[in-house]
Write a structure and sequence with these properties.
This protein is mainly β. The protein is 0% helix and 48% strand. β5 and β6 form a beta hairpin. It is globular and about 40 Å long. 28% of the residues are buried.
């Protein structure tokens, strides 16, 4: 499995959460996560091994250290594309586990459950 060199500090694959997928090329900010209601941006640049479908989504989740999801956002990926290259806004949710949490970003086929690409970022603080 490839490892990304340009990920935000602390990025890794998602195997700790039982997800075995290629590492997603993503950076995001603010880092660490800011206050509730602020908009953060996830910048994704990833070639896909197969064209996207109507079920392909970019999912951003905020999890406790065990992997339990406290909040998640699904973002649309247009069908029939073979790469994702864009900046995706996400509003910081009301609840993020404290003081430790993870930010997980993945490309998945919603409803099927197949995860093609994933990156996990462990954090122990928030800004703002």
């Amino acid at each position: 499995m490839p490892f990304m060199l340009d990920a935000d500090n602390g990025g890794s694959d998602c195997s700790i959460n039982g997800i075995h997928a290629d590492v997603l090329n993503v950076t995001w900010g603010p880092d660490p996560v800011g206050p509730t209601g602020m908009t953060m941006y996830f910048n994704v640049s990833q070639g896909l091994s197969q064209n996207s479908t109507t079920y392909t989504k970019l999912v951003v989740s905020f999890n406790d250290p065990s992997g339990l999801i406290s909040s998640a956002k699904q973002l649309e990926i247009p069908p029939s594309v073979n790469s994702i290259d864009g900046s995706y806004p996400v509003t910081i949710p009301d609840y993020i586990p404290a003081p430790l949490y993870t930010v997980v970003v993945m490309v998945t086929e919603v409803g099927i459950g197949d995860v093609s690409y994933c990156a996990l970022f462990s954090r122990d603080s928030r800004s703002g």
